[in-house]
Give the backbone structure.
Amino acid sequence: MTKGRGAGGESAPGFVQLLTPDGERIDKVTGADGVEYTVDFTDDEYRGLYRDLVVVRKLDAEATALQRQGELGIWASLLGQEAAQVGSGRALRPQDMAFPTYREHGVLYCRGIDPIMPLSLFRGVDHGAWDPVEFRFNMYTIVIGAQTLHATGYAMGITKDGKVGNDDGEAVIAYFGDGASSQGDVNEAFIWASVFNAPIVFFCQNNQYAISEPIEKQTRVPLYQRASGFGFPGVRVDGNDVLASYAVTRAALDHARHGQGPTLIEAYTYRMGAHTTTDDPTRYRMAGEVESWQAKDPIARVRAFITKQQIAGDDFFTEVDELARRESLALRERVLAMEDPDPLTIFEHVYPHGSPLVDSQRQGFAEYMDSFEGSAH
Amino acid sequence: MAEKLTIGKALNLGLRRALESDPKVLIMGEDVGKLGGVFRITDGLQKDFGEERVIDTPLAESGIIGTAVGLAIRGYRPVCEIQFDGFVYPAYDQIVSQVAKMHYRSQGRVKMPMVIRIPFGGGIGAVEHHSESPEAYFAHTAGLKVVSCATPEDAYMMIQQAVASDDPIVFLEPKRRYYEKGDVEVDADLAGAYPLHASRLTRPGTDATVIAYGPMVRTALDAANAAAADGRELEVFDLRSLSPLDLDPVYESVRRTGRCVVVHEAPSNVGLGAEVAARITEHCFYSLEAPVLRVTGYDTPYPAARVEEEFLPDLDRVLDAVDRTFGW
């Protein structure tokens, strides 16, 4: 079924697609898992998805610019992956819980979370500092794949709490990438999820590269096919198609919340930008490859569809651009206004109830700082 | 009511109390269910508390700790058993990068009330990877607390205190002492218990201070009894808490005795003994008659069982070190 450049290769990907790169709507499609997928959106919902895609891309571009101007230490861009993130993010129900990597800014936005929340991490002000349960969105996890086990454990807890088995059931989504699929933790998460029938969706954004290493360095089989070896369904979706990403994720989450166990979704997409702002993709990939993916842009196809279907006109697109501009400006202003933490906060929250060692070091540090003439401390 | 229990049985009973006192407490690990663990520390618990609370996990240590992190975020209090010291390393990343840092990363919004039980140390005639002393790796990691019990009484209370604590705690069990017996107050109230992170004066003395923890507390006491027969009174401390260390009572002792020996099975290089010696030197410098000496395992991989008695600190090596502090 796959041919061309290896198992994960870009020809004949065999994915679920509901919107072609030209903006043609496909009514229904049956995935490799045998499930029939479709969406039934109102015009308002189509416009909403477009709005999310545009805003998320604009915020991402603003963050990249902020890094280039020295205002962020680093930024992990989602450019090219907007549809996978908006589609899956919008598929989550309020009671669901997401475990992101450090690139899921689009999912975060779709959870209704203020996009400023993770920027302090990238600016170097903190390491996250939010309550995962309050936002139904775990803190960004930087160690590759580690969060898939946390997500699985959390999902096991849902089962223990008896919160599965009906429409109100809770489900978990664990995000990770093609590189992470090689990690032991991800494979252990698959085993645990399977053995304990955990209500979890493993959402792998295969963006074709783990920093510089192409997918062929991670796998000889399409990633979604790995699920069968672990005993649960796997499905590949066009990750540049927001409708298909939504449909597949919604179905998998509902499957999980009804107590029917895990699903692996491989969202087949492309990282249009660098791995992070420290990366230089011109060293390892050809411009032609990037151009071929440019033609599959996740936003252009939605705009084409909306235009063709006369769901909205130019006024709407202008209005969305204006909204995105305003939101990105607000993001910029708030990043610039972020203050550096007090150095004494280094010693805070190491332990819930303190530690004599840390406490004495804090005191010593405070006295040292105070010893400088004119010290504010 | 005092009962005569082994350390292993005291741990088992302590875990039972913990499961009874809080429905959020879970036990998870390899073979902890029907088998009751390879050392039977969880014997009978699955039968009485069910498979939902006493969980036989797949055989992957990172998976045990990683899923426990998620369960803790969900509000559970997992007690994870790592079958042997030398098997903890696949979980090391989850312990160091996730368990230890989650509270700090979240600025106090996420707690990791998790206990990681590890039978540690040698002396049981085992094959490779079953006799190690990995405590320094964990004591070196901010965000973790590390404790070790040495008596049935402490085993019973400390395991309950560890489960009740909001800190992630690496709980090191002296596996070769599992079968040693002692009196345990089984009705003792947790609230009135001796503090978890406090060292304990185990044997008063006047001539030199000997510091040990876990399996070496017995060795240090044996040495003190032998020394007493020769007219030398050793003061023995059981550290109990390896991170944080509670050394104030030790400083007071060393200021009196002027001599100190630290004993552990782990190798000496960058071990607990080095930290203890450095702090004692800093706090008791003008009272010391000799440098703080260490009696430890050697800086080799743990040797084959037929020569482990030569590797492990014993009564004679402790007394030899004490003698050297007098000859300095």
In short: Residues 1-12 of chain A have pLDDT under 50 and may be disordered. The radius of gyration of chain A is 22 Å.
